[in-house]
């Protein structure tokens, strides 16, 4: 599902130097964005956290993060700059993260997504995630429910 522009993407581990660009995307993508301090703590202090950025022509256009706990990867966030959505960036980030998690012994990935975020749900479903539950009132900004989704990493490679 990665289109021609996305094939020029560089996906690599997130570094401290990426955080300012991440915060700009974060503020556009989420009603309650994470702070610079939160990202710095994740990168410098959380030994279970793994984050990747997608760069195009030297600019961060998306990112993804995960906490790897035992044999499960919990996706903490995924965001793509609005100007670069629907171009394969999210798919590339998910593919990179899934391969990394699998290489570290993870058997599955899980995440929560807003009930109203249908675009993200479509991406996750195409990637092989299945709906596995609801967390009532999960989002504190508006008491919105979260859909819990799960992907078995033992099934093999992802295809669209």
Plain-language structure description:
By secondary structure, this protein is an alpha+beta fold. It is built from 4 helices and 7 strands. It has a single domain (6-155), classed as Aminopeptidase, CATH 3.40.630. The chain has a 7-stranded mixed sheet. The longest helix has 15 residues, at 89-103. The protein is globular and about 40 Å long. It starts with 9 loop residues before the first strand and ends in an 8-residue tail after the last strand. Residues 1-6 have low confidence and may be disordered.
Strand content: 35-45%
Largest sheet: 7 strands, mixed
SS-based class: alpha+beta
Distance between the termini: 6 Å
Molecular shape: globular
**Element-level helix/strand string:** EHHEEEHEHEE
Overall pLDDT metric: 90
Overall tally of domains: 1
What ranges have pLDDT less than 50 throughout 5 or more consecutive residues? 1-6
Number of helices, counting only DSSP H or I runs of 4 residues or more: 4
Radius of gyration: 15 Å
Total number of β-strand segments?
7
Share of helix, binned: 25-40%
Structure keywords:
alpha+beta, 4 helices, 7 strands, seven-stranded mixed sheet, single chain, 160 residues, disordered N terminus, globular, Aminopeptidase
């Amino acid at each position: 599902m990665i289109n021609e522009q996305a094939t020029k993407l560089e996906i690599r581990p997130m570094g401290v130097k990426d955080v300012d660009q991440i915060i700009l995307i974060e503020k556009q993508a989420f009603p309650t964005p994470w702070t610079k301090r939160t990202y710095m703590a994740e990168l410098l202090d959380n030994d279970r956290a793994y984050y990747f950025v997608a760069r195009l022509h030297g600019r961060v256009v998306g990112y993804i993060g995960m906490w790897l706990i035992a044999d499960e990867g919990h996706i903490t966030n995924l965001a793509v700059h609005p100007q670069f959505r629907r171009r394969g960036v999210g798919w590339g980030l998910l593919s990179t993260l899934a391969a990394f998690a699998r290489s570290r012994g993870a058997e599955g990935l899980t995440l929560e997504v807003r009930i109203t975020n249908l675009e993200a749900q479509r991406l996750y479903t195409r990637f092989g995630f299945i709906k596995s539950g609801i967390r009532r009132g999960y989002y504190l900004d508006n008491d919105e429910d979260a859909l819990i989704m799960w992907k078995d990493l033992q099934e093999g490679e992802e295809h669209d």
